[in-house]
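Board notes (copied after class):
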Amino acid sequence: MRKSRFFTPEFTQAIVRKIEAAYSLSDVKCQLLTATMCDVYLITSFQGKNIFYIYRHAQRTREEITAEWHFVAYLFAHNISVAPAILNKDGGLMLEFNVPEGELYGLLTTYVEGEHFRRRASTEAATEIGRSIAQIHLLSDRMRPNCTDNQMILIVCWNNM
């Protein structure tokens, strides 16, 4: 696994402090899972498990990240097995981290138990994945964005409570 250049004890503690404050979580632990287009962290807390994404500087704009997670919320609202983002206690989608390169954006999502497709490759799993992808394509063709900012995400989170 490629190591994130920001995965230092100091940056990890900054993530922990921001998550605890923004989401009212306690006893937060942070473990880097992957470092690719965005760094993916497993967050464990007294309240349970979550996933935290940090987008690398200049990879995507705030608007592009918002659109991506709006789409995930839309899929979730239509019963596609995805992990939607969780709004922070101020109703915001993203946390900001100031680093020498500029702003990094991070967001917390739900944690979904399961096994990665590569670990359970079979004809049945491939069929299931194919059906899901087809459903995503159909839904994306029908999607007509009519919500702004975090409204869709808020609707999904509210209905999921």
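Comment from the instructor: The two ends are 35 Å apart (CA to CA). Strands lie at 29-35, 38-45, 48-55, 95-99, 102-110.
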